[in-house]
Specification:
Elements: H1 2-17, H2 23-30, H3 39-55, H4 64-83, H5 88-101, H6 104-115, H7 121-150, H8 152-173, H9 189-202, H10 204-232, H11 240-245, H12 251-267, H13 269-289, H14 294-320, H15 326-372
Helix pairs in contact: 1-6, 1-7, 1-8, 3-5, 3-15, 4-5, 4-8, 6-7, 6-15, 7-8, 7-12, 7-14, 9-15, 10-14, 10-15, 12-13, 12-14, 13-14, 13-15, 14-15
Keywords: Membrane, Transmembrane, Transmembrane helix
Domain Major facilitator superfamily (MFS) profile: 1-380
InterPro entries: MFS, MFS_dom, MFS_trans_sf
């Protein structure tokens, strides 16, 4: 069951990041500059945050089988519509809707965390995070290569259909939850929003986890969203397919995720989070140097993925244990992370247009400062 849920996580999360490596091809098809459609990548993250706020809290009350199947089918339909979009505006609407429905993994994470033994919760979450980052890599590498050969519209359609199929299969295999069948009255998105707000207001530990991961994810999003613009322009001049292969460095995250879970179980989440911010002191200068040196860009890509996934496992473990409503807590946590990522992605496109790669690195640095400094001395 854990392996199937990890597979579902990988396939579903790929939809959120699919547009980023295809920006060049999308821009060509619409007759505009790549920097002019960079906002579509940020729209995907905003859509995911909106979907989390509306749907993910239902993991505490709603019937997961029905919710997972309905959302997976929704992704398939909206991705098919996005693949036929005649312009950037309608494509953005489709990406937003598909990303909002791609919250399936966040309905399943509380299920896994709740059924895992307390001493192995970090390792179980680590397996799911390995699936998540494998999906991110697949979106960039396979999506970029396939789009180079068949066009971005075919890739959007195929990914949506695959998500629908795997999501329905996962829903059918989930354990029965007969006690939730009578909760139709509480399976209301507005009730979920209220539960999330109460969880955030009542737990300082949850708010700290949100802040820390928002900073890490914001820095990663700023750099990774604009990376395709750097690689396909000066000084590298790579094709979209070749630039997509750079996503293979993201496999470092898939390897580190289970190890991070074990470290969280042994050392505690706070120590692991502090370690990830210390690691940022090393990889951020390498990203800046990577504007002209390919070896530095490669090294930075490995380190940033290792730091991001370690922080993700640690902060999510903190969030899930912070309240008596883990789905609501998980929703607040992931919404905060993706809000930080979406804001940094949007700013990075503007920064790249005005100041080049140095501006993108400055946005990443600001995200880390905002995520790491406030509340750093709080005891918890």
């Amino acid at each position: 069951m854990l392996a199937l849920i990890a597979l579902c996580t990988a396939v579903t999360v790929a939809n959120i990041y699919l547009a980023a490596p295809l920006l060049g091809l999308i821009a060509d098809s619409f007759g505009t500059a790549a920097s002019g459609v960079g906002w579509i990548a940020a729209v995907g993250q905003l859509g995911y945050a909106a979907g989390l706020l509306l749907f993910a809290p239902l993991g505490d009350t709603a019937h997961r089988r029905k919710a997972v199947a309905a959302l997976a089918l929704g992704v398939g339909g909206t991705m098919a519509a996005a693949s036929a979009a005649p312009g950037a505006a309608l494509l953005g609407v489709g990406v937003f809707a598909a990303s909002a429905a791609s919250v399936v993994p966040q309905l399943l994470v509380p299920l896994v965390a709740g059924r895992a033994p307390a001493g192995r919760r970090g390792r179980h979450i680590g397996v799911l995070m390995a699936g998540l980052f494998t999906g991110v890599v697949a979106a960039r590498v396979l999506g970029g290569a396939a789009a180079q050969a068949y066009g971005w519209r075919v890739v959007f359609l195929a990914t949506g259909l695959l998500t629908a199929a795997v999501g329905v299969l996962t829903a059918a295999a989930l354990p029965a939850e007969p006690g939730r069948a009578g909760h139709a009255a509480t399976a209301n998105p507005l009730h979920g929003v209220l539960r999330t707000g109460r969880a955030l207001a009542g737990s300082a530990e949850l708010r700290r986890a949100c802040l820390r991961q928002g900073g890490l994810f914001g820095a990663w999003s700023a750099l990774w969203t604009s990376l395709v613009l750097l690689l396909t322009g000066e000084p590298y001049h790579l094709t979209t397919g070749a630039a997509g292969l750079f996503g293979l460095f993201g496999l470092a995250a898939s390897v580190v995720a289970p190890l991070s879970g074990s470290l969280v179980d042994r050392l505690g989440a706070r120590r692991v989070v502090r370690g990830t911010y210390a690691l940022a002191v090393l990889w951020l200068p390498l990203w800046w140097l990577g504007g002209h040196q390919l070896w530095a860009l490669c090294a930075a890509a490995v380190l940033v993925h290792a730091g991001l996934v370690a922080g993700q496992v640690a902060n999510q473990s903190r969030a899930l244990a912070a309240t008596a409503t883990p789905a609501a807590a998980n929703t607040g946590y992931v919404v905060a992370a993706f809000a930080g990522g979406a804001a940094a992605s949007a700013l990075s496109g503007v920064a790249f247009g005005h100041w080049g790669w140095t501006g993108v690195c400055a946005v990443a640095a600001c995200a880390l400062v905002l995520g790491g400094l406030p509340g750093a001395r709080s005891r918890g």
